[in-house]
Design brief:
This protein is an alpha+beta fold. The chain contains 13 helices and 23 strands. The strands form five sheets. It has a six-stranded antiparallel sheet, sandwiched between helices. Strands 9-18-17-14-15 form a five-stranded antiparallel sheet, with helices on one face.
C-alpha cells in the first residue's frame, strides 16, 4: 500500500537531526494543500515525563486545530498535523466504510478503510535497528466478536502491548506488521454521537520516550473531538448534497426551443457554502406558438426558500397552462404565497411572447426590470410598472404590451446580478445595459451576438466582491414568424366546415410550394376540424404556421380535451386521433381561456 507522509519542514527532532519528507497520496494532496495550517507544532519532548499543564495546553491546541476542519478530510488532516511529531511519530486513521449518517443503520459487514497515515521520517532511519513502519492494509473487516471488535466496543484507548491490543492490532493492520515494543503504540477507537466510526493508532519511535498512562487520556480527548467533528462533517455533507439535489430539481433540466424564439439560461449560487437559494427561471410553451418567460427570486437563502421557490414555480407552470394573462398569473401567485405563510415573499417577472404578432406582454411583481438589446446594438431598460412583491397581498398587478422586434434579445435576471455590497441596484442595471451594448458592438450593427456567449459575457461583469446573492439569468432571442408564413381562418360550426378546411389548406400549401404534403395535411385537418365542429357553438379557428415544421392549430369554445382511444370494429367514429397520432410528427391539446386548441406538426421538406 502507498504510504502517507506528512512534511514538517523547518522542525528539528530529538538530537537535532534533519528531516526529510515524502509525498502524500494523490487523493490527499489537495486536502493537505487546502487544510494545512502553517503554524508548526512544538518540538517533540525529550523528557520521559510531561507536566499536567503541558498536556492541557497541547490538548487545547490540538482540539482547536481539529475543530478548524469543515469537511471530513480537513478534520482528519487536523488530527494528523496536531499529533505528528508532537504527540507521536506516526499516526494511522481508519474510518468506517461507508460512514453512517445520522440515525441510519450502519452497513454490514463492519469495514474499516485506512483514510490517512502520516509519519515523521529521519534521514538515518534505514540504519535504525527497529525502523518505524506504520503501514497497513487498505481495508479491514471487523469480525463480530473478534479482538478488534471488543477493543472498539470498549471505546477507551489501550496500549499496544496490552492483551487486547496484541490481538486487535494484527487484525487491524494485517499480519506480520512490525510495531515498536512496549508502551509505544496506542489504539484509540473513534466514537461519534451514536456509534464507533473508526480507530486511530498512535506510534512512537524506539529512540523516543514511551507513552505514559496519562497519554491515554490525551489520546481519548483527541479521538473524541475527531469523531464528533467527523460526525458533524458527514451530516453537513449529507445536508449539502440534499440541498444541491433540491436546487437542481427545482430548476429546469433544459429549456424548450419553441417556434420563433431561442432561449439560454444561467444559474450561479452565491457561494459553494450557500448553494441553495430562491432564484428560479422557466420557459413554458403556450398554445398558438407562444411562450411564457418567468424569472423569480424568493427572499432568503435556505432549504425553506428553495422549497417555496419550487412551489411557486409549479404554481406558475399550472397557471400558464390555463393561458391566463400575465397580471392574472401574478395575482394567483400572490395568493399562493400568502397561503404558504405570512413572511413568504418573492419578486417575479412573467411575460408572454407571441411570435406571430411580434409582441410581448410583461407583468412585474417587485422585480428588477428586463433589458432589451436591439439588433442595432442599442440596449434599453424596459419601462415596466414595478408592482409589489408576491406575498404582500391586496395589490393589483399591471401588464404592459411592448414590441418584440426580430433579432432583439430580452434579458431577464435576478438582483444578484446587479446588486451587491459595492453597488446599488440601479447602478448595477446601468452597468448591465452598458455591458450589453458593448458586447453588441463587437458583432456589428447587422448581427446579434451569439446567445450563449452573451450570457457568459454578462456574468463576466461580476467582480470578486459581487457574489453576495445567487443569480438566475434567462435570455430570449426573438426571431418571430413572418406574416407570409401564417394562414388564419374562421370556420362556422357546420357540416361543411371540414370540406372548406381541406380546400383552404390545399390553397395555402400550393402558395408555399408544399403540394407534396397536401394529402396528409388535408386528412389530418379534416379529422381535427370534424371533432371541433361536433362540440363547438362558436366559429372554429384554423391556423397554419410554416417554420422549420408545418404546424396546424384548431381552436374551439369547448373546454373538453380530446382523448385518444382504441375504437372497436363496430364503432363508426373514434379513429380520428388515432390517425393524427400515426401521421403527425407531434400533436397535443391545451385548454385556453376561450376553450381549447388542438394542434399537430408535420415535417416540412427542406
Amino acid at each position: 500500500m502507498t504510504e502517507h507522509i506528512t512534511s514538517h519542514e523547518g522542525r528539528q527532532p530529538t538530537a537535532a537531526r534533519p528531516l526529510e519528507h515524502t509525498r502524500p497520496r494523490q487523493q490527499d494532496t489537495d486536502v493537505a494543500a487546502a487544510g494545512a495550517i502553517p503554524a508548526p507544532p512544538p518540538t517533540p519532548p525529550t523528557s520521559p515525563a510531561r507536566s499536567e499543564g503541558d498536556r492541557l495546553r497541547f490538548v487545547g491546541a490540538a482540539t482547536r486545530r481539529i475543530a478548524r476542519g469543515i469537511d471530513l478530510d480537513e478534520i482528519v488532516l487536523g488530527l494528523c498535523r496536531a499529533t505528528v511529531p508532537t504527540f507521536s511519530d506516526a499516526i494511522l486513521v481508519f474510518l468506517r466504510d461507508p460512514l453512517p449518517v445520522g440515525d441510519e443503520r450502519p452497513a454490514v459487514p463492519f469495514v474499516l478503510r485506512l483514510r490517512r497515515t502520516d509519519r515523521l521520517r529521519l534521514v538515518d532511519e534505514e540504519e535504525a535497528e527497529e525502523p518505524l513502519e506504520p503501514v497497513a492494509a487498505e481495508l479491514c473487516e471487523v469480525r463480530s466478536g473478534g479482538a478488534l471488535a471488543e477493543v472498539l466496543r470498549g471505546v477507551r484507548p489501550v496500549f499496544g502491548d496490552s492483551a487486547a491490543a496484541r490481538l486487535a492490532l494484527p487484525e487491524l493492520l494485517g499480519p506480520d506488521r512490525p510495531m515498536p515494543n512496549g508502551h509505544r503504540t496506542i489504539l484509540a477507537p473513534l466514537r461519534g454521537r451514536r456509534r464507533v466510526i473508526g480507530a486511530a493508532v498512535f506510534v512512537r519511535r524506539p529512540d523516543r520516550p514511551a507513552f505514559e498512562p496519562n497519554d491515554l487520556l490525551v489520546a481519548a480527548q483527541l479521538a473524541t473531538h475527531t469523531a464528533l467533528g467527523i460526525d458533524k462533517a458527514v451530516l453537513y455533507g449529507r445536508e449539502a448534497y440534499i440541498a444541491d439535489e433540491l436546487q437542481r430539481t427545482m430548476l429546469p433540466d433544459s429549456l424548450p426551443q419553441p417556434t420563433g424564439v431561442r432561449l439560454a439560461s444561467r444559474y450561479l449560487p452565491a457561494a459553494e457554502t450557500a448553494r441553495v437559494g430562491g432564484d428560479w427561471y422557466d420557459a413554458i410553451p403556450l398554445p398558438g406558438s407562444r411562450v411564457a418567460l418567468v424569472v423569480g427570486d424568493v427572499m432568503g437563502h435556505s432549504m425553506t426558500s428553495a422549497a417555496i421557490m419550487g412551489q411557486l414555480r409549479t404554481t406558475a407552470q399550472t397557471l400558464a397552462q390555463l393561458d391566463l394573462p400575465p397580471a392574472e398569473v401574478l395575482h394567483h401567485l400572490d395568493e399562493q404565497a400568502q397561503r404558504l405563510g405570512d413572511d413568504r415573499m418573492a419578486t417575479c417577472l412573467y411575460a408572454v411572447y407571441d411570435p406571430v404578432v411580434h409582441r410581448i406582454t410583461i407583468a412585474n411583481a417587485g422585480h428588477p426590470p428586463p433589458v432589451l438589446l436591439h439588433l442595432g446594438g442599442r440596449a434599453e431598460v424596459l419601462k415596466v410598472p414595478p408592482g409589489a412583491p408576491i406575498g404582500v397581498g391586496g395589490v393589483d398587478f399591471e401588464a404592459v404590451e411592448l414590441d418584440a422586434p426580430a433579432g432583439a434579445t430580452l434579458l431577464f435576471y435576478t438582483d444578484g446580478l446587479v446588486e451587491s455590497r459595492l453597488r446599488d441596484v440601479w447602478t448595477g442595471i446601468e452597468q448591465l445595459r452598458e455591458r450589453l451594448a458593448a458586447t453588441a458592438e463587437l458583432t456589428g450593427p447587422d448581427h446579434s451576438p451569439p446567445l450563449e456567449a452573451l450570457c457568459d459575457d454578462v456574468l463576466d461583469m461580476l467582480g470578486p466582491g459581487d457574489r453576495d446573492d445567487d443569480i438566475a439569468l434567462l435570455a430570449a432571442r426573438f426571431h418571430g414568424i413572418a406574416p407570409s408564413d401564417v394562414a388564419y381562418w374562421f370556420l362556422d360550426p357546420e357540416e361543411q366546415a371540414p370540406g372548406r378546411a381541406r380546400r383552404l389548406v390545399r390553397t395555402a400549401l400550393e402558395r408555399w410550394g408544399l403540394e407534396d404534403l397536401s394529402d396528409s395535411m388535408e386528412l389530418l385537418v379534416s379529422e381535427v376540424v370534424t371533432n371541433a365542429v361536433r362540440y363547438a357553438e362558436r366559429p372554429v379557428t384554423l391556423r397554419l404556421l410554416r417554420t422549420d415544421v408545418l404546424r396546424c392549430e384548431v381552436g374551439d369554445d369547448s373546454p373538453q380535451l380530446p382523448r385518444q382511444r382504441r375504437a372497436r370494429e363496430t364503432d363508426e367514429g373514434g379513429r380520428g386521433l388515432f390517425l393524427v397520432n400515426r401521421l403527425a410528427r407531434r400533436w397535443g391539446a391545451t385548454r385556453v381561456s376561450t376553450g381549447k386548441v388542438v394542434w399537430f406538426e408535420v415535417a416540412a421538406p427542406h
